[in-house]
Amino acid sequence: MSCSACQWTSLRPFLSGSLVMLCFISLFIMYRSDIKYLDFGKDSQFCPAFLCGDKAQIHHPNPKSVTKLDAENDTIVLIWMWPFGYRFELDCNTFDIKRCHLTGDKTLYQKAHGIIFNHGDMNGNLENLPKMPRPSFQKWVWSNMESPANSPRILGLNRVFNLTCNYRHDSNIQVPYGYLLPVTSEDKSFKLPAKDKLVCWIVSNWARQQKRVQYYNELKKYVKIHTYGQAFGHHISNEDYPKILSSCKFYLSFENSIYEDYITEKFYNPLIWGSVPVVLGPPKQNYEDHAPPDSFIHVNDFSSPQKLAERLLYLDQNNAEYMRFFNWRSIFKVKRSEFGREHACKTCRYLQNHKEYQAFDDLISWYWG
Ligand SMILES: *[C@@H]1O[C@H](CO)[C@@H](O)[C@H](O)[C@H]1NC(C)=O
């Protein structure tokens, strides 16, 4: 960079020194912003902002193109829109899924075996879908992790997509919010964190007509509930989140809307952090499709919120019985899905195993009923 505007030559050494410093500082910032600080895989335990309903906190790490394209052998998956602006890493090796080329590069449209569209980024219409003719081998994947109540119904969704990628067990590519894996010899044995609260709840999205809000309003008459989150004007940081969960014997895993398989991080987080989820959501049987029966308490097992409160107060006094909620931990550990990347990698694997013709004619009634 030249400094032709500088009149005072005596200042030159000082100015060029500052320039060099500035360069270093900006390089450092660029380097830092490349670090994955929003990886909700094995290292990150908190709910990403947009999954927890707080879309204001999204970070934008730069995507890293990890592999070179081997057009002959690789399955190309084009991410048409970064889900809620979140650019995840384009690498499937940690899932042990090979020969995938994930890309955000739209110039690869003609070559892509599959294209992923995130429902939440469709802006209520199909305007931002590709306009070019679709290659005959290419499959379009409708991806969505929000429940029907939180997903705008878009006209024209039928006869557009070939595959669904969703938390539902009957989607083509199922990505639940989390799952239970067998413990291995490398895993540390579980130690119950110290508890100083009986019941806790962290909630941001609050609406009077929600079943969970009505249930909470009754329950709190019979047992003290420690409340946090935007709904209670008590925003908590990512650091405090696991601390709060760990310090409570029970956590209210109340879903914002009730649908089959819609069992979110609200359930998996307390399991990860050593609290017992008290669930309000789909029926108990559906929870048991995803987690052992002795890992949670279902509100439907109680004739009233008062009866549930009595049970929680009883368990507070009977530690041996409370401890039974942790028996499953000698066999399983909990893993949360990685938003975005896991969807793309599982899509890639699905495409590798399914080259046949597939079409999804009635997405609207499948999802919204
Ligand atoms: C994908 O679905 C569309 C729309 O139904 C259909 O025209 C196309 O042939 C399908 N492609 C494949 C590869 O199955």
The parts where pLDDT drops under 50 for at least 5 residues are 1-9, 27-61
Determine the mean pLDDT: 86
Reading off the top of the CATH hierarchy, the class of the largest domain is best stated as Alpha Beta
Please give the domain count.
2
Order of helices and strands: HEEEEEEEEHEHEHEHEHHEHH
What value does the Rg take, in angstroms?
24 Å
CATH topology descriptor of the largest domain: Rossmann fold
What bound compounds does this protein have?
2-acetamido-2-deoxy-beta-D-glucopyranose
Which CATH architecture of the largest domain?
A: 3-Layer(aba) Sandwich
How many strands, which pairing sense, and closed or not: the largest β-sheet? 6 strands, parallel
Number of strands: 13
CATH homology group of the largest domain: Glycosyl transferase family 10, C-terminal domain
- Class per helix and strand makeup: alpha/beta
> What share of residues are in beta strands?
15-25%
User: How many helices?
Assistant: 9
Strand line-up in the sheet with most strands: 2-1-3-4-5-6
Q: Give the helix proportion (percent range).
A: 10-25%
- Identify the overall geometry: globular
Describe the structure.
The protein has 369 residues and is an alpha/beta fold. The chain has two domains: 50-175 and 339-368, Rossmann fold (3-Layer(aba) Sandwich), CATH 3.40.50; 180-336, Rossmann fold. The protein is built from nine helices and 13 strands. It has helices at 12-33, 211-219, 240-246, 265-273, 284-288, 305-317, 319-323, 341-353, 363-368, and strands spanning 75-79, 100-103, 114-118, 139-144, 163-166, 173-174, 178-182, 197-202, 225-228, 248-254, 276-280, 297-298, 332-336. The strands form three sheets. It has a six-stranded parallel β-sheet, covered by helices on one side. The protein has a five-stranded parallel β-sheet with strand order 9-8-10-11-12, sandwiched between helices. It has a two-stranded antiparallel sheet with strand order 7-13. Helix 5 links the parallel strand 11 and strand 12. Helix 2 (211-219) crosses helix 6. The longest helix is centred in the first third of the chain and has 22 residues, at 12-33. It is globular and about 65 Å long. The structure holds 2-acetamido-2-deoxy-beta-D-glucopyranose (NAG). The site of 2-acetamido-2-deoxy-beta-D-glucopyranose has 7 residues, from loops.
